Amino acid sequence: MPETLQAGQFYTLPVERIVTPGAYLRHGNEDVLLPNRWLPEGLQKGDEIEVFIYHDSENRLIATTQKPFAVVGQFAFLKVVSTSPAGAFLDWGLSKDLFVANSQQREPMSEGKSYLVYVYRDEKTGRLAATEWTNQFLKTDTTGLQEKQPVTLLVHRQTPLGFAVMVDDCYEGLVHHADAVVGLQPGQRLQGFIKQVREDGKLDIVPGKPGYDKISGEPERILELLKQHKGALPYNDKSDPQDIYAFFGLSKKSFKMAIGALYKQRLIEILPGGIKLVE
Predict the structure, then answer these.
(1) How many other C-beta atoms lie within 10 A of the C-beta of residue 21?
(2) Could you tell me which of 54, 56, 55, 51 has the C-alpha nearest to residue 39?
(3) Domain boundary among 208, 231, 249
(4) Nearest to 185 by CA among 157, 162, 212
(5) What total number of domains does the chain contain?
(6) In this structure, are strands 75-84 and 98-101 parallel, antiparallel, or unpaired?
(7) Where is the Conserved virulence factor B first S1 domain positioned along the sequence (predicted)?
(8) Could you tell me the pTM of the whole model?
(9) pLDDT confidence band for 90 (50 / 70 / 90)
(10) How many other CB atoms sit within 10 Å of the CB of residue 15?
């Protein structure tokens, strides 16, 4: 824990005292106010509470129980709620919007559109801000990363080859169309794994879990759905990927792996018109 409170981070802090404006929380020799509007009912002196620290409109550190879409050191896909001559303001889940200066925009941002940004703390002022100039925060040395290593993904944009994703908030990777879960959208956060670390250091990524670990639990879920639908469902390995995802929430590849496992266990039949439980 740093010696002083840092904006842009979560802390679990004890309540030092309750006052008219809210509750003062203690961090070392510092107190920070949690305003009444964020005060949980029944909070008392001595209780501990998790809060996020940021600056209010008067440049004072303040606490909130609201959860931002990203913290310092993370990428996020955020929507512009307003613009000004100095820059743009982004909705990042707090009552106070996140500022992006004009100098930190690739091109002028438009209200209502969403952009990939990186949340950082200004070294001079300590205030939180965002930037579109994200490459400076990406690591290019992928030495030490391994195939099948679990990672957290943020979908950035669709490309001719698939979907560009931010990996663990420090690398860039690609989910090829063949490996993409139907319905991937920019701004979506999900879990995945490294399929391949290429010779040029670039990362090929797959959503979900590797191999048959990826479908652990999914065959059981399909069995349960079959039981709920009188032992038969109109889906098989020839079904449209969109239809499979809409009903099961699975990519066609994952669905085929799951029903293949059930078929090998002789729990289901795969028929021209769908799948059914073995009687």
Answers:
(1) 11
(2) 51
(3) 208
(4) 157
(5) 4
(6) unpaired
(7) 8-66, 72-131
(8) 0.72
(9) very high
(10) 19
